[in-house]
Design brief:
two-stranded antiparallel sheet, six-stranded antiparallel beta sheet, mainly beta, Immunoglobulin-like
Length: 77
Amino acid sequence: MEPDAIADVDVTIRADFSLPGNTPLYRVNGEWVRGFRAEVGVYRYRLYGNGTFFPDPRNAEMMESKEGLWYNVVTVR
């Protein structure tokens, strides 16, 4: 899903780091954002627009889980 296509959608994130469940993201200056704290490491996350999964359009790094689901991956250094 392209960033402009989700302008009027409720976007949430489900992640391995410190955010609980489906945490809402906020639109700031045209970007979806959310602050969080995380220890150094590699983390998986999934974005949802109105409850439907879509890959992060700004992060092409993906990995498949044991359950067969695809996640974006972020490295915190």
